[in-house]
């Protein structure tokens, strides 16, 4: 009986072994296919990572031809995504978008100084007396000028003062021609200030003598 079972056992074992091998073969081929597919995906991902560097601005654009001209330098080595490339000379970027992003960041870090302004509130006015002068620019009559002593200061609001300077105001602004004072008006102003006719004539004579001395002195200096 035992001899008859042995062939059966052997046949069963052989058949079972064939089934096991048959079942194992697709598994081995499947494992090999997955390994091959995984290696191909890894190679593609590495190649893609080496070829493309994502744009840090988020628009996904990467144009190597748009390198900023201001960041010229040696060719940068390949780096990981989203990183700057440090060269021997300067810190450069790969795209124009990165360059613009760096400029905007740099400008935002600049702290602007405090804006200062000037505001005028009041005016201090001094009134000086009119006295006999000695200006050689006077072509006719007695010259006049302002004295050194002045009346007590008075303060006035700036807006109030400017309101009197408008055309038709109490202190209307005058042109350069209107600032010229005729000889008769000068004599009248000096007379009202307390100066006599004799003092005015003496001032005119001194002015005429000074006008003759000055050209002679200038001619003498040029000759020497």
From TrEMBL:
Q: Where is this region: Disordered?
A: 1-83
Could you identify this protein by its name?
A: Uncharacterized protein
Q: Which organism is it from?
A: Thalassiosira oceanica
Q: Where is the composition biased (Basic and acidic residues)?
A: 1-40
Compositional bias (Acidic residues): 61-71
């Amino acid at each position: 009986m035992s001899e008859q079972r042995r062939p059966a056992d052997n046949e069963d074992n052989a058949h079972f072994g064939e089934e096991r091998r048959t079942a194992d073969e697709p598994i081995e081929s499947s494992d090999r296919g997955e390994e091959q597919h995984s290696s191909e995906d890894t190679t593609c991902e590495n190649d893609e990572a080496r070829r493309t560097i994502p744009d840090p601005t988020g628009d996904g654009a990467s144009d190597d031809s748009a390198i900023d001209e201001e960041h010229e330098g040696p060719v940068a080595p390949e780096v990981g995504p989203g990183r700057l490339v440090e060269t021997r000379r300067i810190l450069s970027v790969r795209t124009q978008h990165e360059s613009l992003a760096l400029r905007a960041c740099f400008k935002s870090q600049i702290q602007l100084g405090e804006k200062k302004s000037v505001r005028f509130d009041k005016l201090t006015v001094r009134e000086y007396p009119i006295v006999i002068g000695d200006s050689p620019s006077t072509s006719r009559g007695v010259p006049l000028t302002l004295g050194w002593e002045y009346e007590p200061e008075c303060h006035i609001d700036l807006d109030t003062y400017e309101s009197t300077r408008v055309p038709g105001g109490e202190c209307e602004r005058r042109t350069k021609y209107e600032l010229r004072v005729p000889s008769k008006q000068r004599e009248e102003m000096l007379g009202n200030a307390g100066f006599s006719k004799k003092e005015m004539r003496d001032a005119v004579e001194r002015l005429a003598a000074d006008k003759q001395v000055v050209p002679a002195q200038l001619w003498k200096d040029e000759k020497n």
